[in-house]
# Entry
Amino acid sequence: MLQKGTAKKVTIYVNEDTQHHFVSLCDSILTFLLHKGVSGATATRAMAGFGAHHVMHTTKIEVLTEHLPIRIEFIESAEKVDELMPTLYDMVNDGVIEIQDTNVVKVANKERPTPPKGPHTEMRGTARLMRIYMGESDKWQGEPLYEALVKRLRLMDIAGATVYRGILGYGVKGHKHQSGRLGFSGDLPVMISVVDSEDKLAKALNEIESMMQDGIIVLSDVDVIRLVHSRPAPESSHANS
Amino acid sequence: MRTVKRAKLLRLHFGESDQYNGKPLYEVIVNRCKELKIAGATVFRGLEGYGETAEIHRHHLVRKDQPIVVTIVDTAENLGRLIPEVEEMMDTGMIATSDVDYMRIEKPPTAGT
# Structure
């Protein structure tokens, strides 16, 4: 399964009509990748192009529509790419194979079945608790600061964050945050509490600081008792061996 | 550039219906904090809870009695001045302190805001 972080992106350029063991090379590469459990591969047909033979292929002129270029792309971990490469190298008898370093930002899979929930297990340990105080009306690039901060923390894989709205308070700015006469007010105090390991919070702190105009950040050491559903061991790379 | 200071975090737990001299206790405490030049105070309202009186605090149709938490961050000396006064004002409830690291963010407003 593809993970967040550094990975390799492989791009293979072939011709639509190149054959491999009497079937289309493009098809047999995709079949091979599917069989090997690659997380995903996409083949795209080009509008126009030319290759090492220096013959222009284009959809504009009927005679030249044969041999259109096809680009096959897939992203996998470096080890997986290493495992696949000898076979791909052998298969592509006419074309180009290219590998780039890439960075996987998000892997989301809606249809992945949720693993069956096991009994609760307890995890204990020490961690840091961060409380971030701000006003409800504080903005970052036009969106509410607390929303922007929670989104950023999620992007950084921080274990969890909770936003609380206060009913009264004052702080750095000296003015009072209080709900208006009808109970509506856009500027009540807001606090986000975040729990994670010390080094992850230290990294997040830089981001948070750059997004905030004013407010305070309070850090304390905490003991964590976490109840998690024990899951079957995660599928590892040898799942398809 | 970043200055992280050691400070104390004070948490006061009581009920929303608690009063002092006819005014809501949390309002009186926040006002007193301002007078004592305490750096900041924030009042949060909980959804439900119970305390030493074992009475469940929750939202009633006519009576507001949800749990209230006031959090205050300041130096140990400043809190030392505040705590005796708060203790005197509070009828039942809980006062908890913990050691924290804190940093204050105060950037000059950027042009255009």
